[in-house]
Amino acid sequence: MFENNVFVEGSCRNVEEDGKIIGYEMETYITYYRGIPLSMVNHIKVETDGVEVPRENIRFTPDHIDWFTLDEMETVAGIKWEYDQKATVRVLQKGGLPKGNHKVCLTVCTRTAYIPFPLEGIVTREVTI
After folding, report:
1. What angle do CA 119, 74, 27 make, to 5 degrees?
2. What is the Cα–Cα distance from 83 to 16, expressed in whole angstroms?
3. What is the C-alpha to C-alpha distance for residues 14 and 3, in angstroms, rounded to an integer?
4. What does each C-alpha distance from 43 to 73, 96, 118, 119 come to in angstroms?
5. H or E element that contains 42
6. Edge to edge, what strands does the sheet with 51-52 contain?
7. Distances in Å between the alpha carbon of 29 and those of 46, 64, 86, 94?
8. In the prediction, which pLDDT does 116 show?
9. In whole angstroms, what is the distance from residue 126 CA to residue 129 CA?
10. How far is 105 from 51, CA to CA, in rounded Å?
């Protein structure tokens, strides 16, 4: 239903900190029509070039201030991800993605108070680094 929101086109890029590439990231919008607390994000998955990224290597931020592991997000009820707010999914991977073309699949699944099943969006994009 909200698949167009899942993986913002042109947003995948390597991330550099202190002069070293620590991973790569992409932007996403919520798969629902209103904001939710982070604890209601059911799961986030990333698959790159056919290989699923380990859960412990994924970080999430709705605001580029507070970063969370997926395990931490399960308990974060005081920070909301708003409908019109781009969030960032980061994959920690030394060296990031090598230059060239890659197939990246992002899955974002949320729970809501009014719908009895999770809302999952899956988008695969060909990205160039």
Report:
1. 60
2. 28
3. 23
4. 10, 22, 10, 10
5. strand 41-48
6. 51-52, 41-48, 101-110, 119-128
7. 15, 14, 5, 26
8. 87
9. 10
10. 10
The H or E element containing residue 5 is helix 3-6
Structure tokens at 77: 């009820």
Count of domains forming the chain: 1
pLDDT tens digits for 65-111? 999 999 999 999 999 999 989 999 999 999 999 999 999 999 999 99
First to last CA, the chain: 29
Residue 50 CB contacts under 8 Å (≥ 6 apart), including other chains: 103
C-beta atoms surrounding 60 within 10 Å: 23
Quote the domain boundaries for residue 47: 3-128
Where residue 92 sits, what CATH number does that domain have?
2.60.40
**Predicted confidence band of residue 31 (pLDDT cuts 50, 70, 90):** confident
- Please give the pLDDT value at position 28: 97
